[in-house]
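User: I've been trying to design a sequence by hand for this structure and keep getting stuck. Would you show me what you'd pick, starting by listing the structure so we're on the same page?

Assistant: Good idea, let's start from the same input. This is the structure you sent:
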């Protein structure tokens, strides 16, 4: 096993463990500079190191510390153990016996209901109701800018054809995304990056990971992300045979559409009552989530695959007609 020196140095800088205390290291796929570290005394740690061009881990650690200190929000965020003296790494408690959500089978009604309930407790924290230092307003959709949705025609030519395909398919949604961004208000404390791989679960309890994008924002974005993520996971259960159509793929779905609908409704039931207008906005924000994922897939592809095409199609449907789509899904 090779343990990189920067990780050991960061861990030593927290005072939690010396290099000789480390027995195992597992770098987490899909999480840059994040590692699970096993110690000789049996403890499991989650270490997150700073990345160039990304928010400092000290800022995220401060948000997590504040969330865990607030009444009603304890245990929504991971347990922060220490930040190294250089501010380059934060160490959290590891969740060795908790379930990591990796796909559709892991996001059952108990889990999505618990995520919805956790978000309701988080969103109950409003600006001015609690003295929270270090928490700032977020940009629309949890981003500081809308750079992913504001590509000029000249810049678009430099993108892979997969991205351009998504962009063309979503042409009717561009003004809608702009309108959603314009109505964004920092009205509640939000996580900003709700998706299955940012959650660990133990029965009906959940902890949300990765608080880089947390701040004051629109709570409907968190809900829309949760719904959009469920739709995306469900899409990956479909058998997208070559030459098939949306109707044929749905008719032969291993997981019926009704099951997707029941998961979405379990999530919203855990959250609590929503007005009809809010349900339409949740559907629209789910469309933004799916559009982001389709564009990200397009950045890595010269030709969009079937899941990417379907993701872009559903993103456009949710954004262009959320009031009709919401009753079907929510």
């Amino acid at each position: 096993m090779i343990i990189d020196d920067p990780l050991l140095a960061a861990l030593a800088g927290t005072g939690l463990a010396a290099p000789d205390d480390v027995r195992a290291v597992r770098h987490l796929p899909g999480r840059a500079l994040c590692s699970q570290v096993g110690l000789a005394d049996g403890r499991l740690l989650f270490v997150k190191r700073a990345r160039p061009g990304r928010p400092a881990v000290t800022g995220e650690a401060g948000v997590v510390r504040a969330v865990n200190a607030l009444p009603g929000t304890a245990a929504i965020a991971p347990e922060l153990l220490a930040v190294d003296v250089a501010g380059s790494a934060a160490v959290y408690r590891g969740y060795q016996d908790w379930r990591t959500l990796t796909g559709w089978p892991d996001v059952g009604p108990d889990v999505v209901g618990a995520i919805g309930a956790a978000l309701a407790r988080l969103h109950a924290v409003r600006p001015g109701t609690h003295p929270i230092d270090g928490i700032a307003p977020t940009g629309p959709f949890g981003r500081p800018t809308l750079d992913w949705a504001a590509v000029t025609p000249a810049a678009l030519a430099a993108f892979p054809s997969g991205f351009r395909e998504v962009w063309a398919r979503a042409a009717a949604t561009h003004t809608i995304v702009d309108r959603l961004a314009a109505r964004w208000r920092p009205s509640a404390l939000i996580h900003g990056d709700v998706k299955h791989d940012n959650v660990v679960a133990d029965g009906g309890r959940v902890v949300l990971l990765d608080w880089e994008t947390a701040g004051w924002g629109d709570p409907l974005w968190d809900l829309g992300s949760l719904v959009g993520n469920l739709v995306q996971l469900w899409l990956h259960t479909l058998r997208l045979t070559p030459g098939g159509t949306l109707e044929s793929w749905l008719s032969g779905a291993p997981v019926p559409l009704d099951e997707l609908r029941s998961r979405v409704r379990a999530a919203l039931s855990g959250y609590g009552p929503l007005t009809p207008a809010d349900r339409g906005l949740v559907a629209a924000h789910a469309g933004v989530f799916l559009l982001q994922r389709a564009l990200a897939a397009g950045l890595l592809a010269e030709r969009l695959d079937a899941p990417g095409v379907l993701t872009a199609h559903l993103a456009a449907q949710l954004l262009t007609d959320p009031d009709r789509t919401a009753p079907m899904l929510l």
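That's my pick for every position. To get oriented when you compare it with your attempt: The longest strand covers residues 22-27. The domain at 5-93 is CATH 3.30.200.20 (Phosphorylase Kinase; domain 1).
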